[in-house]
Amino acid sequence: MALTALSALAATAVFTAPAQATVFDQGISVKSRVHIGADGAVTLSGTYHCRQASPGGAIQIKATLVQDNVRLGIGAGDAVCDDQEHQWTARSKPGFDLGLHEGSAKAVAELQEIHFGGGLLPRAVDTVARDETDVWVADHR
Questions:
Q1: Taking CA 28 as the corner, what is the angle to CA 82 and CA 43, rounded to the nearest 5 degrees?
Q2: What is the pLDDT of residues 45-98, one digit of tens each?
Q3: Are 74 and 91 in contact (CB under 8 A)?
Q4: Do residues 51 and 26 touch, judged by C-beta distance below 8 A?
Q5: What are phi and psi of 127, to 5 degrees?
Q6: Would you state the pLDDT for residue 20?
Q7: Selected residue with higher pLDDT from 38 and 118
Q8: H/E stretch holding 6
Q9: Residues 6 or more apart in contact with residue 12 via CB below 8 angstroms
Q10: Strand residue runs (E) in 50-121
Q11: Could you tell me whether strands 70-78 and 86-91 are parallel, antiparallel, or unpaired per DSSP bridges?
């Protein structure tokens, strides 16, 4: 019983990481300003650094904007993992009117390690770095 409780406590300590958390010297941040372009596309950006993914894996960037009851997830593509700091940008497709507007919101940026198991579908996805930030959405429509 004590071993089970200790395991649960250890798992909680490992998986409750603060903003700008890093695992194995990997990190990501999101800028505090988000833009809605004249075409309606939403753009988030920031920086990241990471080490090479494990064999059979890849590192990708995922960005999410949350405002009122709207949640917009945008993939920012594959990360270059060479221990250097890089810029990232995530841009939604133009023309979607989800009800996003100028004002405050939350943005989340994640570095995700995708593990493949021999097929085309991922076997597992692990978040290796995460940043959650209050942002300002600037509407340029």
A1: 110
A2: 999 999 876 666 789 999 999 999 999 999 888 999 999 999 999 999 998 778
A3: yes
A4: yes
A5: -85, 120
A6: 43
A7: 38
A8: helix 2-15
A9: none
A10: 57-67, 70-78, 86-91, 103-116
A11: unpaired
Q: Which residue has the higher pLDDT, 14 or 127?
A: 127
Distance in Å from the first CA to the final CA of the chain: 59
CA 122 distance to own-chain centroid: 18
Please list the alpha-helical segments (H only) found in 16-133.
none
Of 52, 69, 61, nearest to 28 (Cα)? 61
Q: Report the distance separating Cα 75 and Cα 89, nearest Å.
A: 9
Taking the model in full, what pTM does it have? Answer: 0.77
Rounded CA Rg of the chain = 17
Q: CA 109, CA 133: separation in Å to the nearest integer?
A: 9
Q: What is the pLDDT of residue 125?
A: 87
Q: Which residues lie closer than 8 Å to 122 by C-beta, 6 or more apart?
A: 114, 115, 116
Backbone angles phi, psi at 23, to 5 degrees: -125, 125
Name which of 42, 45, 50 is nearest 29 in CA terms. Answer: 45
Assigned token pair, 53? 């993914």
Instruction: Tell me how far apart the alpha carbons of residues 102 and 87 are, in angstroms, rounded to a whole number.
Output: 24
Query: Would you state the structure tokens that stand for residue 58, as one six-digit string?
Result: 């890849």
Tokens for 112, please give them. Answer: 């995700």
